[in-house]
Amino acid sequence: MNLSFRQWLLSTLAISAAIGSLFSACGGQARDTLETNRALWTSQALTDYSYHFKRSCFCGEQSISPVTIEVHDSEISVTYDNGQPMEQEYLQYFPDIPGLFDIVDNAISKADSLDVQYDSSYGYPTHVSVDFMKNAIDDEVAYEAGNLEIL
User: Fold this and answer.
1) Which domains does the chain possess?
2) Which long-range contacts (CB under 8 A, 24 or more apart) does 128-131 make?
3) Which of 23, 66, 83, 147 could bridge across to 54 with cysteines, CB 3.0–4.6 Å?
């Protein structure tokens, strides 16, 4: 079967549009799931809570250590599992729950691959795995959150 250049181009564009729609639909579903769970979290109006958190990536040891994050009226404190407080310069790597939702929101827009699981009772992300560039090395990052305690 010989296709003219015009037929080939139109076929290629149609296939590209179909693939683009598929990815757009997946992003739309991820965003809908994010917003549903964010609304569940927000509806609980929790201002004082703590949770265990672990970040996994190819980065410094202090930014991947398992920690407990405690939040009181939007003020965050972080302690290592041994009870020692987190050094100030590393606090930026340890988000409160709204910050976890922001991480997911950003990844939906920018990542090549995203896997998110949410807590069924409170709606917060319990597992986030992000690969920003499919063929890049060491750009992956994962977040684990759990053991939420209302204070």
Assistant:
1) 5-150 (2.50.20)
2) 128/100, 128/103, 128/104, 130/103
3) 66
